[in-house]
Amino acid sequence: MRAQNDTLQTAPAVSWIAVRIALVAVVAVGTFVLNPLVGWQWVAVILAVTAAVLPQTFAAWGGAACIVIGMLLSEPDVGRAMLAVLVVHAIHILTSLTLVIPGGTRVVLAALRPTAIRFVLVQAIAQPLTIAVMLGVDGIRGTAPWAIVAGGVAVAAAAVLLLRSAGRSATADRRGG
Fold first, then answer.
1. Cβ atoms within 10 A of the Cβ of 14, count?
2. Does residue 98 register a pLDDT over 60?
3. 99 and 150, same domain (yes or no)
4. Which of 41, 91, 92, 139 suits 56 as a labelling partner, its CA being 20 to 30 A distant?
5. Are residues 135 and 152 in the same domain?
6. Which sign does the torsion angle of CA 71, 74, 77, 83 carry?
7. 112-156, pLDDT tens digit by residue?
8. Crossing angle (nearest 10°) for helices 38-53 and 59-73
9. Same domain for 61 and 135?
């Protein structure tokens, strides 16, 4: 016999399989749109399915690499570059989620909200930068090394900021703990 209060209700949730299907769909659509080579398209889809079945293989990042290969083999285009930034970022996020969401579970949508917010914020920064770089490369052919230097400086600055904030939080933990 069950009492009336023996039920558990949660907020709206999605199944673990939905995240993995989304990963395969994003890799497949992204590859078929951005990579003109049929062989690489199928390699990317096979890698995405492998990643959905066995997330610990990190195979979806191979699918993202297939998109990059297609981008390198085609003519530069601002729209395609922006789509590639969006798709590769989505692949990265979905792959990371498949690694931490166990099979057979459900994920409350509210738990995915911070990930979605970070995705939108990163895209809000990355898309204008993609436009700037693509337009800059078109305008001054042969002088793209400035973008490499700027990217290196940005990565170094981000690393320094992250290390400093990690040092501050470790110091605060020692004081408080």
1. 15
2. yes
3. no
4. 41
5. no
6. negative
7. 999 999 999 999 999 988 888 888 765 555 555 666 677 777 878
8. 160
9. yes
Which conformational region is residue 75 in: left (phi greater than 0), alpha (psi within -120 to 50 degrees), or beta?
Answer: beta
Report pLDDT for 173. Answer: 60
Tokens 């990217």, residue located: 151
Q: Are residues 90 and 156 in the same domain?
A: no
- The single residue listed with the structure tokens 């951005």 is 34
The per-residue pLDDT for range 80-91, each reduced to its tens digit, is: 999 999 999 999
> What DSSP string describes the chain?
---TT-----S-EEEHHHHHHHHHHHHHHHHHHH---HHHHHHHHHHHHHHHH-GGG-HHHHHHHHHHHHHHHS---HHHHHHHHHHHHHHHHHHHHHHHS-TT-EEEHHHHHHHHHHHHHHHHHHHHHHHHHHHHHHHSTT-THHHHHHHHHHHHHHHHHHHHHHHHHHHHHHHH-
Q: Where in the sequence is the domain holding 87, given as residue range(s)?
A: 13-143
